[in-house]
Amino acid sequence: MKAAVFDGIGRPLSVEDVDIEGPKRGEVLVKVAATGLCHTDLHMMEGYFPWPAPAVLGHEAAGVVEQVGEGVDAVKPGDHVVLASTPACGVCRYCVAGKPYLCTAASGSQVMRDGTSRLRRSDGTSLFHFMRVSTFAEYTVVPELAVVKVRDDAPLKSVATVGCAVVTGVGAVLNTARVKTGESVAVFGCGGVGLNIIQGAGLVGACPIIAVDTLDEKLALAKQFGATHVVNATREHPVLKVHEITGGADYAFEAVGDVSLLGQAFDSLDRGGTAVMVGLPRLGEEYHVNTTNLFNDKALHGCAYGSVDIRRDIPMFVDLYMAKKLKLDELVTRTYRLDDINEAFEQMKSGGAARVVIAF
Q: Which residues in the chain belong to E strands, given as ranges?
């Protein structure tokens, strides 16, 4: 099969023939239909987070079950599935406490749960997995825990983004912050995740919904996804503008992984407001807060994978899309072939795309 191999920081991905071993007990072989490009993948390629090489990256995808290993009963060959990079075992302390998005099954995800890889180069070199899903490939072997069955009539290219951008963004509003109808929301960064925060805020009836970015084309998309106000941060001071519109936001979401934006989000809050960091920052970066602000009952909240329950939320988000309550097709700015994946990443880095998808 063809796969895009990561060989180290700063190097382009190498599209080549890769051998894949069949699924072992508790594993599923999936034929990938489409996979989205996410800044998390880019962070690994640029060294924001260390990841061993060589590896097959990619973690946001949908496809069709090709084969199942012994003991698998959640899916069968032919099922349409969305892959989840944060699986849930159902039995660890976090799952039992109602926080499956913190499940310990996601740890050690450079290899499969038995400590070995299912991927090899043609010369026999073992390849590391990425979050145990490795979706930059025509096929992938994943744990049963990472496979979520979805309805067969949902187009796979469209629902591929549900596995990361949608669950993270919409989930941050519904599950992490639990925004209520009529509360004000500011979103800093209007990429794939930010747009989903915006449409999540629209789902719950938040108002106003303020989108902040530096690119007019992304702000135009933000309006399409439900923003009531837009702020171009190169022309207007975003914090002052948010206060002008709202008197101080009830919720402010950082959707890029930039601690300076987190500071702007926190400063845009009203008394009792909450800033939620959804974007993934560079490893080890720190944010310093003026503790006096905490006496105004302001809060700073982290967000892990939209605080979702993948078995509940992924099928629900697909249903909402099919009912025209969620925009997914509009999220995909451009589609590429796997052979052009490096060009696709350049397009994403330029800032001119909400979500770029590799279609097989």
A: 2-6, 14-20, 27-37, 55-56, 60-68, 80-83, 119-121, 126-127, 139-143, 147-149, 185-188, 209-213, 229-232, 249-254, 269-277, 299-302, 332-336, 355-359
Query: Can you give the pTM of this predicted structure?
Result: 0.94
8's enclosing H/E stretch is none
Convert the pLDDT of each residue in 22-79 to its tens digit: 999 999 999 999 999 988 898 899 888 889 999 999 999 999 999 999 999 999 999 9
Check: CB of residue 186 under 8 Å from CB of residue 252.
yes
Kindly report, residue by residue over 234-266, the tens digit of the pLDDT. Answer: 999 999 999 999 999 999 999 998 888 999 999
Rounded to 5 degrees, φ, ψ at 49 are -125, 135
CATH architecture of 169-303: 3-Layer(aba) Sandwich (3.40)
- The interaxial angle of helices 39-46 and 341-349, nearest 10 deg, is 100
Q: State the residue for tokens 């994943």.
A: 142
- Checking phi first, is residue 166 left (phi over 0); if not, alpha (psi -120 to 50) or beta? alpha
In angstroms, the CA 359 to CA 85 distance is: 19
| Domain spanning 2-149+328-359: CATH superfamily | Medium-chain alcohol dehydrogenases, catalytic domain (3.90.180.10)
Spell out the domain ranges in the chain. 2-149+328-359, 169-303
The answer to whether 274 touches 177, Cβ cutoff 8 Å, is: yes
Give per-residue pLDDT as tens, 87-125: 888 889 999 999 999 988 766 689 998 899 999 999 999
Pure H helices in 99-237:
156-159, 165-171, 192-203, 216-224
Helix (H) or strand (E) run with residue 264 in it: helix 259-267
